């Protein structure tokens, strides 16, 4: 055991609660546990009063709302700030031109090459966003139209989102790591009119072509009239006459002005769609609206990250995920903060890249994912010591439960045993952080997301729908609406109700297992549905299975998660072949490549085990519980197997797994 592992083990063994350092709390937005408790109590007694005050303090409205909240979770239908009018790009840009922040950096962009840095002041960003909004307008984009965005982490990505918001067009960002097939299905689902993409993505010093994926997707996307291409790497690409155009040409055209009149939007007008995995094959288009979402993103960014005007704030997520939407863009820019945007990865050109950037820009607030911390942990402590991290004030974590060892490593080596870590639990659907410590205020327990934020009525229910007793595991639920909650699944109201409001009446069901300890702290255990969390990204087992079954050699497949030291969970797939197909290493690789092509690299199965049969109940349901145990080499107790149609299938699978190791 290394000295660091020793230290972590002994600190953890103490079962220690980390009290917040005294200094720091006095200037925090929420200053003490007393204040937190008061705010929480107030928000539960008078939710409308609580949220109206926040919406008024944080957001600039063209017209004030008539009614704070109207809802009926049994339908479900939720409306916040009914009758209110606003524009998000005005809130994120225009108002900062007159509040003293005009020349302040809004976005500091660090490209993958170290020397590639661009800084946008609020004025510059405003002008770029207006120009691009005018380009979109020229291409026929109107309020309510959908715009698909498939870009690497370049400034044009942020500009695209804000330009859509300016026109009232609905953005649908598709993560640049997804495949052509995944892009195609997302464009098709929302009938996007325009696609914004780039020639390539820079990754690990290489240019990986992106435009060919867009071309492939667009072959079967008749709704897309225009494809706007950002030049990033300068690689050779094909431009389709009449459909494709270059960003840099369009934005600098003579008739494109640097001002664009913003569209005054209804608080409940759709702002964006973001696809996420669920229990069934097809990803869900999670819908967020305007007024409530902005209020919530700003409110949580302010209280959880304690954003102040002089801070440099860095969230390492990609804008292709909700974390980027809420905590690179809308929350921080709404507050007039300085947000850092990074194009690269944590370990290129070396494992000290993050820390080098922290020193370079004197980052104050740093928000990342457990999978990144675990990957960097493997590289040892030395890379963290090469750079001066003393500017840091707050550390954050998101995406999956952070294991206590990774928490301690982060705390000791990055936080130098002084900085608070805010472990933030939330989802694409919640729009913003729901359960989290408040920095310099909440006593911390490594591995616990601690307490619900004011306004969030979180609880643990058991199967009967009663509140679980302390430390009894159950379903995490949210009992009251909050402004950032999703308003629907695009084009699919039944799925909205079924996926989120079916388990308990009038209650939001995030499908996470959790327990609450004797101090009321929440410990999130992970997904209860058929979703695998790989490096903080949700992948539906059904999506992976249908990709596998689409291959001609596959008769049947079952995918489960298995524990993985860096990714949290890895994908383990059981595959039954067609009788004519032969088991071979080549076929195994071919299947992995096939899934990669269908969904994207993150969905590539780590292990494929050949399965002559799958364990099924007599009614034909696959018993995943057993498959999960076999994948984890846990053969001791499979629980009740009496409903299995053919118990010998399990023995066969266990034998094969034991041989595989
Ligand atoms: C799922 C949501 C929210 C932005 C990133 C992921 C898991 C997320 C935590 C945390 C334990 C967490 C949950 C959740 N999760 N944060 N701090 N502790 N689990 O968004 O892709 O919508 O995934 O990620 O299982 O349901 P997402």
UniProtKB/TrEMBL annotation:
Q: Which UniProt keywords apply?
A: Acetylation, ATP-binding, Ligase, Magnesium, Metal-binding, Nucleotide-binding
**Which cofactors are named for this entry?**
Mg(2+)
- Entry binding sites for ATP: 399-401, 423-428, 512, 527, 538
GO cellular component terms listed in the entry, alphabetical order:
cytosol
Q: Which GO terms describe its molecular function?
A: acetate-CoA ligase activity; AMP binding; ATP binding; metal ion binding
Positions that bind CoA? 203-206, 323, 347, 535, 596
Residue numbers carrying N6-acetyllysine: 621
Task: Enumerate the spans annotated as AMP-dependent synthetase/ligase domain.
Answer: 101-488
Q: Where does Mg(2+) bind?
A: 549, 551, 554
Q: Supply the EC number(s).
A: 6.2.1.1
Q: Which ranges carry the Acetyl-coenzyme A synthetase N-terminal domain?
A: 36-92
Biological processes, Gene Ontology terms: acetyl-CoA biosynthetic process from acetate
Q: Which residues form the AMP-binding enzyme C-terminal domain?
A: 543-621
Q: Which Pfam families match?
A: ACAS_N, AMP-binding, AMP-binding_C
Post-translational modifications = Acetylated. Deacetylation by the SIR2-homolog deacetylase activates the enzyme.
Entry similarity comment: Belongs to the ATP-dependent AMP-binding enzyme family.
| NCBIfam families, A to Z | Ac_CoA_lig_AcsA, PRK00174.1
Q: What is this protein called?
A: Acetyl-coenzyme A synthetase
């Amino acid at each position: 055991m290394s000295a660091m592992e020793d230290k972590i083990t002994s600190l953890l063994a103490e079962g220690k609660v980390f009290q917040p350092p005294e200094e720091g709390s006095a200037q925090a937005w929420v200053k003490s546990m007393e204040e937190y408790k008061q705010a929480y109590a107030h928000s539960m007694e008078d939710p409308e009063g609580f949220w109206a005050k926040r919406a008024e303090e944080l957001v600039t409205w063209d017209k004030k709302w008539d009614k704070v909240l109207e809802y009926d979770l049994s339908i479900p239908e939720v409306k916040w700030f009914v009758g209110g009018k606003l524009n998000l790009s005005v809130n994120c840009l225009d108002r900062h031109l007159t509040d003293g922040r005009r020349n302040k950096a809004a976005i500091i962009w660090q490209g993958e090459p170290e020397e590639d840095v661009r800084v946008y002041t609020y004025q510059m960003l405003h002008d770029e966003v207006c120009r691009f909004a005018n380009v979109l307008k020229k291409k026929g984009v109107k309020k309510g139209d959908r715009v698909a965005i498939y870009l690497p982490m370049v400034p044009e990505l942020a500009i695209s989102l804000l330009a859509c918001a300016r026109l009232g067009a609905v953005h649908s960002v598709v993560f640049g790591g997804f495949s052509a097939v995944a892009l195609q299905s997302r464009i098709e689902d929302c009938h996007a009119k325009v696609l914004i993409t780039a020639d390539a993505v820079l990754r690990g010093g290489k240019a990986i072509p992106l435009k060919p994926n867009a071309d492939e997707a667009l072959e079967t996307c008749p709704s897309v009239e225009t494809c706007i291409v950002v030049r990033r790497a300068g690689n050779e690409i094909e431009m389709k006459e009449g459909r494709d155009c270059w960003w840099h040409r369009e934005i600098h055209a003579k008739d494109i002005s640097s001002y664009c009149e913003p569209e005054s939007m209804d608080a409940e007008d759709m702002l964006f769609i973001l696809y996420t995995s669920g229990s069934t094959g097809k990803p869900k288009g999670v819908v967020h609206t305007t007024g409530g979402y902005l209020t919530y993103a700003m409110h949580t960014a302010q209280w959880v990250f304690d954003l102040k005007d002089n801070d440099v704030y860095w969230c390492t997520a990609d804008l292709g995920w909700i974390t980027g939407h809420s905590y690179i863009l809308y929350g921080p820019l709404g507050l007039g903060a300085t947000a850092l945007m990074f194009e690269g990865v944590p370990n290129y050109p070396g494992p000290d890249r993050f820390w080098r950037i922290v020193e370079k820009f004197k980052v104050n607030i740093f928000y990342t994912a457990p999978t990144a911390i675990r990957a960097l942990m493997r590289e040892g402590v030395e890379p963290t010591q090469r750079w001066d991290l003393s500017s840091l004030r707050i550390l954050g974590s998101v995406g999956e439960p952070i294991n206590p060892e990774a928490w301690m490593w982060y705390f000791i080596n990055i936080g130098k045993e002084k900085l608070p870590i805010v472990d933030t639990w939330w989802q694409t659907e919640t729009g913003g952080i729901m359960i989290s410590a408040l920095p310099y205020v909440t006593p911390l327990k490594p591995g616990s997301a601690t307490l619900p934020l004011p306004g969030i009525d979180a609880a643990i229910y058991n199967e009967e729908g009663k509140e679980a007793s302390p430390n009894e595991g159950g379903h995490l639920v949210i009992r009251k609406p909050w402004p950032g909650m999703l308003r629907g699944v695009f084009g699919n109201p039944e799925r909205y109700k079924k996926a989120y409001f079916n388990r308990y009446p009038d209650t939001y069901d995030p499908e996470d297992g959790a327990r609450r300890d004797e101090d009321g702290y929440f410990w999130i255990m992970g997904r209860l549905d058929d979703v695998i969390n790989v490096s903080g990204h949700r992948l539906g087992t059904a999506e992976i299975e249908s990709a596998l079954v689409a291959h001609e050699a596959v008769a049947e497949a079952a995918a489960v998660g298995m524990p993985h030291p860096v990714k949290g969970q890895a994908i383990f797939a059981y595959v039954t072949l067609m009788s004519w197909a032969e088991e071979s290493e080549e076929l195994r690789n071919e299947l992995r490549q096939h899934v990669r092509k269908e969904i994207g690299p993150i969905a590539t199965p780590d292990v494929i085990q050949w399965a002559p049969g799958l364990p099924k109940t007599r009614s034909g349901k696959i018993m995943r519980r057993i498959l999960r145990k076999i994948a984890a080499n846990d053969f001791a107790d499979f629980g009740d197997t009496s409903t299995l149609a053919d118990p010998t299938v399990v023995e066969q699978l266990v034998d094969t797994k034991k041989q595989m190791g």
